[in-house]
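ingest -> fold -> write
write: protein_1
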Amino acid sequence: MGKEYYRLNPALRSAETKQENIENWLSIQKTDFYHAQVAQERDYCFWCRIVETAKPNSLESYTSMSYTLNDPNTLNSAAKTNFILREDEVLIIHTLAVVRNGQVIDKLNDINVKVLDHVRDENYGNFDNEKSVTILIRDLHLNDIFLIETTIERTYASDSIRNKFFRYLYTYPGPYWAYSNYQWELKNETGQTIEGHYRYFRDESDTILEKEKIVLEDQDSFIIEEQQYTGKELKDLEIAPFIDFATQKNYPEITDTLADLYQQFYHVEIGTFAADLLKDLEALPSLESKIKYAIDFVQKEIYYLYNSSEMDGHEPQAAEVTYQTKQGDCKAKTVLLKVILDSLGVDSEIVLVNYNGDIFLPIYTPSPFNFNHAILKIYIDNHIYFVDATVANDQGFLEKRRKDSFMNYLEIKAGTTLQKQAPFQDQLPAIEEIIHCDVKEDVATFTLEGTMRGGVANNTREMFKNQANKDIISRFNGSIYSNMVLYNKYEQNEIDNHFSDTSIQIIEDNKELNELKVIYKATISEPYLKEGNKRFLHYWDRNYFLNDEAENHHHKDFPLWVDRNSVKMEIHLTVDQSIDQQEIFTRQECDFKSKYLQHRVTKKVSEHGVSCYLNYQTYRNLTLSGKELEDYIKINNQIRNSNWGLGIDIIEDGLFKKLGRLFKGK
């Protein structure tokens, strides 16, 4: 018999939903507040009571609501009420009813409940063992008042760290509903102290308030109650306020618990279950090669299965199981990689990160549930490297692999606290390009030779693997069209009328150095821009050298996050005409040095062309705000002032040009 995901329990129906008591709250329909909200076509809730009861081994979430079905969309949603339940959750239905013409009509006998698998993204191995429980309710009418009362019980597995740590993030309702009475309550029955912190609450001048923290001892409750309430509109460029509840622990105490949990999975003899892997490692000539082989094996040969409930609360899978089944979540893959590296004498520690919520980690109340992903921190030759064992397309020796950007992480090592990954720069340019554009008789022979490294090389390989060659060429055609400013001459859908003999191919792929070299070729007709009788030839690369996000960053609560590739580029524009060698922007060079980036442009100018050399060295994983952001915008604007490419002016035939040829011929 399968797991029961729902059951009916009408015995817990509240008094307000019974016929003899409805007049006590239906009279609200006579109030000015009710009429004002209905006139604005808001959904109206007569009451909403939510009670979260935190217990040592479970969480009970009770909800009681009574609201209007005046809108067809709201009616449709109520008629097929849906819940997404984890494997450890069960839905208890207390009340399903409507009030119609002053009469309570029970709907518990008018339902059909469908329980189906809920798969978030099967293509990427996201299997959460979740169920979609849909309650189909017959014969609901527009303008009914809908009554619903439910409890979701979540019971933690015996090995779940949720038995020791509670966390809940409370956010206020949005502005789309109006409430006669709104109440939210947190009951602490965990046997431990829970603390809560107000985050991003503001005064009337939009200044963030420093409010006193909430402390809930065991058996205490915290209640938010509002009368005649509508949620506040969130202003643009502000984070919505929330209250962050968690068991009162600091990070050293948390890592003590996590380290005890993980240590038992490290002390294994890999030869007892992976003798063939050890044999392969022993045959390799150097430690560098062995580390590469180990990472490649775990990343590419162990299939990644993401299960949020396991990531969120269970002990990691044993390395032996992961090796034998060839599958596991991020913890399982990372534990296996650590065990292999331990056998090679390479020091490493598992760390927890949250790529999407990274910026909030120093703000959140300490909790292991602030994190949703595990990666490996490797110590070797006085350097630190981070490796994500779930990445399947990475290549190269350890120092040549992709480098992920994140600011904060928690090392699973007893007594440690939240740590920061410092901003870093690419050791070698992530992108090197050499562009040749040779124009003769109004036709350009164009070549681009590109060298990509690290994560850029990985992504380029994936592009060639997953896209048709014609689509890749089309993408490059569009970039060249943009960089040569040809959009000022013709529309993008006319590119094929001017670009011919196009080709692109990989000419070298060094998977040890993680370097990929490609060459793109094209013949471009009418490459000049024209203004009156003047002609110009351009090549500017905005994406590589200008950070458009900087000047457009106006968020009050977020810093600007800089994570850009270092780029080295050569642009060689040659023509069969004389050029204006004295034109100020053609000759302009620069050498900008700042705390945040360095950018250098040098040029060689000749009678028939210019060679331009650009070297853009920037930081990754850098956050900027205030004065630092202002300084960064300043240097970005200096680059914007014609220091991100090359343009040349053609000297047209005229009296002085003809005289010059005459004297030159004598």
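write: protein_2
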Amino acid sequence: MSSASVRFGTKAYVCARYFIRPGKCFKYIDQRGEDVTEHVYEVMALYSYCVLLRDTRNGVRTCPGYNTLSLMLRGSEASE
């Protein structure tokens, strides 16, 4: 993690860096072997240690930590 994330905290850093707020949607491409699945997630709520996401296609909810969310967003940023 960068010195900014250490200084301000992972949640503050990730939210500021990627403009995360409830209602924001982002695309995530999940690649496992030859299988490629595209997900569009909507941010439902921000908690102290995780963020609640809802898959807009099938409504499945997941709650990754901010470190995992940062990796997801970095991956989607690289593929655009």
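write: annotation protein_2
The helical segments are 3-8, 10-18, 66-79.
Strands lie at 25-32, 35-46, 51-55, 61-62.
pipeline exit 0
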